[in-house]
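Hello again, I could really use a second opinion on something today. Take your time with it, there's no hurry, and the full record follows here:

___
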Amino acid sequence: MDVARVVFACVHNAGRSQMAAAWFNLLADPARAVATSAGTEPAVRVHPEVAVVMQEVGVDLSGAEPALLDVARMQGAACVVTMGCGEACPVVPGVPLLDWPLPDPKGQDVEAVRAIRDAIAERVAAFVVEHGWGKSGPTGTM
């Protein structure tokens, strides 16, 4: 069985897409699916406010490095989920593209970034369940 790969993308790959990939990799069975993230104009580092709110829920993004979203990274993906990169996101024939309109956490106060984090967590959890990529418990369910 092939492992599905999901790419989460935003402009700077320093906020929304980093949070989404982290949530996905926590919730999905790595034998079924894994996530990466990238941006159309990658930043130098993850936004500090994003790192803080993710650390609050036990997710360490201190080693995460923004990466460039290009056709090579998207090819072969089961799905690409964009979050605010609009027309700048490349399109790869045969790769499903979803858009989740979410606000950019850059420069926002911690409360606003927490709300964005939680909205992303909810969307990712539903996405993982919808595609059957969740970790199975003793009864075969999440």
